[in-house]
Write a structure and sequence with these properties.
Keywords: Bacterial flagellum, Cell membrane, Cell projection, Chemotaxis, Cilium, Flagellar rotation, Flagellum, Membrane. Pfam families: FliM (PF02154), FliMN_C (PF01052). InterPro entries: CheC-like_sf (IPR028976), Flag_FliM (IPR001689), FliN-like_C (IPR001543), SpoA-like_sf (IPR036429). This protein has about 325 residues and is of the alpha+beta class. The chain has 2 domains: about 210 residues, 3-Layer(aba) Sandwich (Chemotaxis protein chec); about 55 residues, Roll (Surface presentation of antigens (SPOA)). The protein has 11 helices and 12 strands. A 6-stranded antiparallel sheet has the order 1-7-8-4-2-6. Strands 9-10-11-12 form a 4-stranded antiparallel sheet. The protein has a two-stranded antiparallel sheet with strand order 3-5. The longest helix is centred in the first third of the chain and has 26 residues. It is elongated and about 120 Å long. It starts with 6 loop residues before the first helix and ends with a helix.
């Protein structure tokens, strides 16, 4: 005969059905689920992490120079920091802007004269208005303007002037990797009119946090993928040919012209001797030290502690002098 449940057992069974045990759920939570990063095979990444690190290094250098320029122009304490350097699609950059935002187009001219879309830059309106206020002699704005702020005609001119200060140093920031020149800046108040880059085109977006006294904002720089592809093609070509360091024409001549007036220490060594400490302590005026060298022997002329010339000792206008005989440096280089 089947076992008959008591009333208390029936009540316990019904209460358990009303509030099911969470034991199984806790067990599922404890099991760590592997996390996978989704990869879009329809639009694969075009630039490796190493190449993004190069861009990061370039704009780290850029932020130092730009912050120094803002400090000198606005007499304000400015700090800049690269937040991220990521490869994205152009529409992710353009969709984040409103219709009233102003973008700045800056063309780069590469040594191989290849054509590519310009760099696109944008500064948040709150930060720009703070800079404009400071440029006119006031204090920074305390309140952030509403999204989609419309600049007046005067503010547009000052916007252009300020961005000219900040973007003029782009070529200098890139110079450690590639000698490039920059074209004239173009200011476009209508984002939809810029058609040189399509929405699905790959771009590298550099986000730079800017803090000027109490005002904070962001400078966004969008570098088209076609432009970066041309840049890295030039760099790779120079590395393969071994002429990477010869990117600057007449570089040796230019460097020598810049350091021509630098003062260097030049000394002639008559000879060397080794004495004991007791001999040195007993030395008196008139003592003679034997250098174990013929009086007609050649001397060595040192430039900044480096041996450069062999020379002969003599006199010139009643002053001790040396006459250069041989270039030691060239002989050593030739033997190598």
């Amino acid at each position: 005969m089947a076992e008959v449940l008591t009333q208390s057992q029936i009540d316990a069974l019904l209460s358990e059905m009303d509030s099911p045990s969470t034991k199984s759920e806790d067990t599922d939570e404890k099991i760590a689920k592997p996390e996978y990063k989704k990869y879009d095979f329809y639009s694969p990444k075009k630039f490796t992490k190493d190449r993004l690190k190069v861009i990061n290094g370039i704009y780290d250098n850029y932020t130092r120079m730009a912050a120094s320029r803002v400090n000198s122009v606005l007499r304000a304490n400015c700090e800049m920091e690269v937040v991220s350097v990521e490869e994205q699609r152009y529409f992710e950059f353009s969709n984040a802007l409103s219709d009233n935002d102003i973008i700045v187009l800056q063309p780069l001219y590469l040594p191989d004269k290849s054509k590519a879309p310009p760099i696109v830059s944008h500064m948040s309106s709150g930060l720009m208005l703070g800079m404009i206020d400071r440029l006119l002699g006031g204090s920074e704005c305390d309140e952030s303007p509403v999204v989609g702020y419309t600049y007046t005609e005067i503010e547009k001119r000052l916007y252009e002037k300020m961005m000219q200060y900040l973007l003029d140093i782009t070529g200098e920031a890139w110079s450690q990797y590639l000698e490039i020149s920059t074209g004239n800046l173009e200011f476009d108040a209508n984002m939809g009119m810029f058609q040189e880059v399509t929405g699905e085109s790959p771009v590298v977006i550099v986000l730079i946090n800017v803090k000027m006294n109490e005002v904070m904002g962001r400078l966004t720089i969008c570098i088209p993928g076609n432009l970066l592809a041309n840049v890295f093609a030039v760099i790779d070509k120079r590395r393969e040919s071994g002429s990477y360091e010869e990117g600057l024409p007449d570089g040796r001549k230019l460097i020598l012209e810049k350091i021509r007036d630098t003062e260097l220490t030049v000394k002639a060594e008559l000879g060397k001797a080794m004495l004991s400490l007791s001999d040195i302590c007993s030395m008196r005026p008139g003592d003679v030290i034997d250098l174990k060298k013929s009086k007609d022997a050649t001397l060595t002329l040192y430039v900044e502690e480096q041996p450069w010339f062999e020379c002969d000792l003599g006199a010139y206008k009643k002053h001790a002098a040396v006459k250069i005989d041989k270039n030691i440096k060239k002989e050593v280089e030739g033997n190598e």
